[in-house]
Amino acid sequence: MRRYGKHTDEDDIRTRPGRRNTRPRTNIRPKHEDAAEGMVLTVDRGRLTCLVEGRTVLAMKARELGRKAAVVGDRVALVGDMSGKKDTLARIVRIEERTSVLRRTADDDDPFERVVVANADQLAIVTALADPEPRPRLIDRCLVAAFDGGLTPLLVLTKSDLAPPDELLELYGALDIPHVVTSREELADGEAADRVRDHLTGKITAFVGHSGVGKTTLVNALVPDDRRRSTGHVNAVTGRGRHTTTSALALPLAAPDSWVVDTPGVRSFGLNHVDPSRVIHAFPDLEPGTEGCPRACGHDEPDCALDAWVAEGHADPARLYSLRRLLATRERKEGD
């Protein structure tokens, strides 16, 4: 059957549009000015649980964010269904600027940087005084990550009924880091949680620690209403604990604007991402002495100006020793 007459032209012939390029492209993205503000509480296989106006909302990352990932503690903007009802899903369309970032790598040779917690004010480094034995090099690495990421460190020493804390506290005395010493009995009767809680009011505090040191037990005591994690034991042969926390989780304390973030137990804390030149910022009493240092000085070299600065009495020699010990920790393994 003939569809067109003898004298047809181009305007008479109907064409079917191609499947590609049917919609004009644009670089303009929606601003989502009416998006709701929220805070990421936990991340699980691409789904993010967020706190929005006092209720928990399940969300996913919008495609427009590309490879940018949201982590626990992030302040985000959300659109979509934010009722928090079952089988509903909102979209995270914007991740706000972070005030601090706790990062780590698997080891010092791993170039892949992992953000553990965002916007935390404080890093509580939980260490057992025995069972398992304390690992000062791991503590040093956590301190470097805290100083580099803009977090204030807090030492929490557990199991003081098994070993005294004096030697370990002396090692970090020059750093003037606040600390809390607890025993298993104090943890059981709630006294330990009360003393730790005094350091957490009005802050977002991330808890890190080697497996088996009692970190999750302490978090459970701090937030009893949200207890959701089991605790493990320490292997008598290896001295290692069993991982009982598998993902970071932000939990609210009773005091306003107070949160604890429980993170998975670590057996290593890589610092491949840390620029050693930024660690000096955590030592304001030593920083003026670096003005005479040669360019790109690592502050542990023979011509470092800090030696003369300290010798002249401008700072405590123990502070310089602590700085250099922290700088050197990138070159050593945690178990050394």
Detail the topology: elements first, then pairings.
Blueprint: E1 36-44, E2 47-52, E3 55-61, E4 75-80, E5 90-95, E6 101-104, E7 114-118, E8 122-128, H1 136-149, E9 152-158, H2 166-171, E10 179-181, H3 184-189, H4 191-197, E11 204-209, H5 215-222, E12 249-252, E13 259-262, H6 306-311, H7 317-328
Helix pairs in contact: 4-5
Structure description:
- 18% of the residues lie in helices and 22% in strands.
- It is an alpha/beta fold and 336 residues long.
- The longest helix is centred in the middle third of the chain and has 14 residues, at 136-149.
- The model is unreliable at 228-244 (pLDDT under 50).
Strand order, sheet with most strands: 10-9-8-11-13-12
Residue fraction in strands:
15-25%
* Structural class determined from secondary elements: alpha/beta
Largest sheet: 6 strands, mixed
On the 0 to 100 scale, the average pLDDT is 84
Q: Give the beta-strand count.
A: 13
Cα shape = globular
Number of helices, counting only DSSP H or I runs of 4 residues or more: 7
Radius of gyration over alpha carbons?
Answer: 26 Å
Can you write the helix and strand succession as a string?
EEEEEEEEHEHEHHEHEEHH
Unreliably modeled segments = 228-244
